[in-house]
Structures are given as C-alpha cells and as structure tokens.
Amino acid sequence: MAAYHQRMDSSPSDRGVLRPELLPEFSRLPATGSAADLVRWFWISRWDLPLGRQSTQDVIAFGALNLVVQHDETVISGATTRISHRTLIGTGWAVGALLQPAASVGLPVQPLDLVDRVESVDGAEWSGLHSAVSDEMSRRPPDLAAATAAISAWLIDRVTPTDEALLVNRAVTSMETDPSLVRVDQTARRFNVSERTLQRLTSKYVGVSPASLIRRRRLQEAAHRVRTRPDASLAQIAADLGYTDHAHMTRDFASVLGFSPSAYRSDS
Predict the structure, then answer these.
(1) Against a cut of 0.90, is the pTM above it?
(2) DSSP of 30-90, one letter per residue?
(3) Which residues contact 196 (CB under 8 A, 6 or more apart)?
(4) At how many degrees (to 10) do helices 195-205 and 210-228 cross?
(5) pLDDT value at position 14?
(6) Inter-CA distances, 201 with 2, 75, 135, Å
(7) Per the database record, which ranges form the HTH araC/xylS-type domain (predicted)?
(8) Among 56, 169, 246, 254, whose CB has the most other CB atoms within 10 angstroms?
(9) What is the sign, positive or negative, of the torsion defined by CA atoms of 135, 141, 143, 148?
(10) Residue 163 CB: number of other CB atoms within 10 A?
(11) CA–CA dist 111, 79 (Å, integer)
C-alpha cells in the first residue's frame, strides 16, 4: 500500500504529528450534526507494511480523550502530558474519534484517571460498536464515512450533553485554537466563570488543567512552524507565539518532547 496523506478538513491534519512524512494512509473527517457536540473530528489510519518493517510516529496529542476502534480491539486514550509514541506493524486499521469534553460523561472512565494512559474496553456494547465499524472497514474499498457514522450513532445514543458540558466544549476549543488566549484568566473572563471554576471543569471533563491546554496548543504550533517554516528563525517563532524568548521555547520542547527545536528542525 502506498503511503500518502489525505486532508479532509480545513485545519492541518498533521498538527501535533511530529513526523507526518512517516504516516501511513491517513484521513480526517469532520463530525457533523449532533455528533459535533461529542466529537471534534474523526481520524482514520490504515497500514500494510512489509514483513519486518514498522512505522513509528511521535505525537504531541491534543488535550482530549480519544475513542479508537482498531482492527483488533477498542481502546480509550486519555489526555497526555508528554510526547506519545505509536508503532505500527503488519496490516491493520484504526478509526478514532477525538472527543469533545461533553462526550466523557458517556464513557466508563474518569478523564482524570486516564491521563497518559490507554485503556482497552470490552463487553456487549463495545463488541457491537467494534462489529459495526469493522463491517464498514472490511468493505472494498472501506466506507470511511459509514465507519465514522457508526461511532457517531453509538455516542449519540449514550450521551446527552448538558449546558455545563457544552460550555466546556466551547472553552476548550477556544484554548486550543485561539492564539490570543495565552493565560487562564483570559479564558475564564471570556466564558464568564472564575479561574477556579474553569480549573474544576477542565479537570472533570478532560483531565488536565486549562494552563496545560494552552501550553499544548502553543507547543503544537511551535513544532509545526519549526518543521514547515525553515526560513523562520527560532527566535522569531518563539516571539510570534508568545514565548518569553527562544530559551523559553527550548525548555518547553525539552520538558515535553525530550529534544530541542534546533534538533527537531535538523531531523525534519
């Protein structure tokens, strides 16, 4: 199977992916209708690697839960505080839903307990979900839209978002997409809640703090610019993204990723 990248929405589908050129077949589809309150977007990966070959990807994951139906199991992964790694071998597929905070109330996990963890799930209802997605992925060619629709229907049947949950959706989306939000108090004021309330809500629905979400967005964007803008100086990238200085950005890279911006640029 030839490796390629297929972009299916307006945002960069490789944001947070440190080495997208190593991705196998990868697609992203938007969540639509009432599913959009529960899923930010769907991602689909398929791979068929020669015997003895493997593909390892490093990711600065979004601050969110992922519900992932794979060819061999269904898992829920939590928000992360460090770089994530996944190694692919053989032949397989995965259909993932990057979940909105509101979806967490319908899952048998507490987001705070799942930080930096991946948990397999089983039982009759999970088996039904896996079968529904597998049926669509087994078609030739696979019906990606139908596979994601099966996950949408499963979630919609189990989760009715509350006003509080929808507020957290909006706040988290703003922190992860709006570069003007660089402090927690700015987000709290925008949504007319106290900083303490915002801290409580993101911990409840996502598992990490508002400050962590803001830092993660900035680090994702910094990595994307370091890789895709070779003519921009690291000092300029740091300044554009609100870091105190180049050294501040370098410390952020080192603490989360384990390497410096200059080393990442040299290796990209």
Answers:
(1) no
(2) E--GGGGGTEEEEEEEEEEPPTT-EEEEEE---SS-EEEEESS-EEEE---SS-EEEEEES
(3) none
(4) 70
(5) 66
(6) 43, 24, 37
(7) 169-267
(8) 169
(9) positive
(10) 6
(11) 8
Task: Classify each residue of 139-150 as buried b or exposed e, where b means 16 or more C-beta atoms within 10 Å of its C-beta.
Answer: eeebebeebbbb
Residue 127 scores a pLDDT above 50: yes
17 forms beta bridges with 59
DSSP H/E element including 27: strand 25-30
Distance CA 139, CA 128 (A): 17
Contact partners, residue 74, CB within 8 Å, separation at least 6? 67, 68, 120, 121, 122, 126, 129, 130
Cα separation, 26 vs 102, in Å, equals 26
Token readout for 219 is 């680090």
Measured between alpha carbons, how far is 164 from 193 in angstroms, rounded to an integer? 11
Q: Which residue has tokens 């706040």?
A: 171
Beta carbons within 8 Å of 69's beta carbon, 6+ residues apart: 94, 95, 96, 129, 130, 133, 134, 147, 151
Q: State the residue for tokens 């597998």.
A: 134
Percent of the chain with pLDDT over 90: 74
